[in-house]
Amino acid sequence: MDYEQILFEVRGAVGIMTLNRPERLNAWTFQMSAELVDAIDDCNANDELGAMIITGAGRGFCAGADIKDTFKTRLDGDDPARSRRERRDWVDLIRSSKPIIAAVNGASVGVGATMILPCDVIIASESAKFSMGFIKMGLVPELASSHFLVQRMGFGRASEMCLSGRMYSGEEAHQVGLADHVVPPDQLMDKALELAETIARNPAPQLRWVKSLLTENGSDTDLHRVQKREVELLQQAYATPEHKEAIAAFLDKRAPDFRNLPTTDEHG
Fold first, then answer.
1. Is 53 helix (H, G, I), strand (E, B) or coil?
2. Cβ-contact 162, 146 below 8 angstroms
3. 48 in Cβ contact with 13 (< 8 Å)
4. Residue ranges, the chain, pLDDT below 70
5. Which residues pair with 183 in a beta bridge?
6. Cα(257)–Cα(6) distance, integer angstroms
7. 258: nearest Cα among 194, 193, 205, 196
8. What does the pLDDT read at residue 68?
9. What is the DSSP string of 98-120?
10. Fewer CB within 10 Å: C terminus or N terminus of the chain?
């Protein structure tokens, strides 16, 4: 796919996707979403890549849905999402993909906030701004954000953010648990790349399995079911070349090399 609304580059073992409509503060469109999905699929299929970063070009990360191209079009009777059932489930894609870091450089509003909540780590610039502004548009949250916000922030803080629709600074987002890190603007990508490269050095199948466990077990109150999932994947992990390499590297007092091993079925 030729990208018109995102940029894509590879740095080492990390794929970087940059929302690229800076003149509109990277306002979200269905085309942008399709391009992101395509880039993520390509990263998942590339054995040389171990992690991904999503960030934004210019002053904004993503200032919400493009009102003209989405809301106004819908009110005019031409629903741009009428084929949505055929589109990929964004939450399922992010949670089943290789690790993804959101590097939030500016305004992250509406869908610009909900699209990153399923990401594994959110790093905010001090100049970032977050808002769940759906209530101010006469709407309600989407993309399972009413789940992920509670998990990240707790019930009371998630309620306040959604019901007020107010803006949170990068520092405040970090204080309330929405962002996992906050850094000066000129350190944002360095921090994201450092973490992505650290993650990417770990064994790829196990990274996906850990994500699966966190997704399924994170809000499951049945501890027997939680442990059953862990035991099943642990038994699979014991038999992998990655586990054997980790043991051999420990005994040899060297760093493990997980990139030159026989292929493992990542989904068991």
1. strand
2. yes
3. yes
4. 69-86, 263-268
5. 125
6. 33
7. 205
8. 73
9. SPEEEEE-SEEETHHHHTTTTSS
10. N
What is the DSSP-derived secondary structure letter of residue 84? G
CA 115, CA 130: separation in Å to the nearest integer? 12
Q: How far is CA 146 from CA 158, 167, 193, 220, in A?
A: 8, 17, 29, 16
Return the pLDDT at 78: 57
> Which residue do the tokens 């051999």 mark?
248
Instruction: State which fold the 6-200 domain adopts.
Output: 2-enoyl-CoA Hydratase; Chain A, domain 1 (3.90.226)
Alpha carbon separation from 64 to 83, 91, 112, 114 (Å, rounded) = 21, 17, 5, 9
pLDDT of residue 77: 54
The burial of 253, by beta-carbon neighbours within 10 Å (0-12 exposed, 13-18 middle, 19 or more buried), is given as exposed
What's the confidence (pLDDT) of residue 267? 43
pLDDT value for 259: 85
Query: Which pLDDT value is given to residue 67?
Result: 83
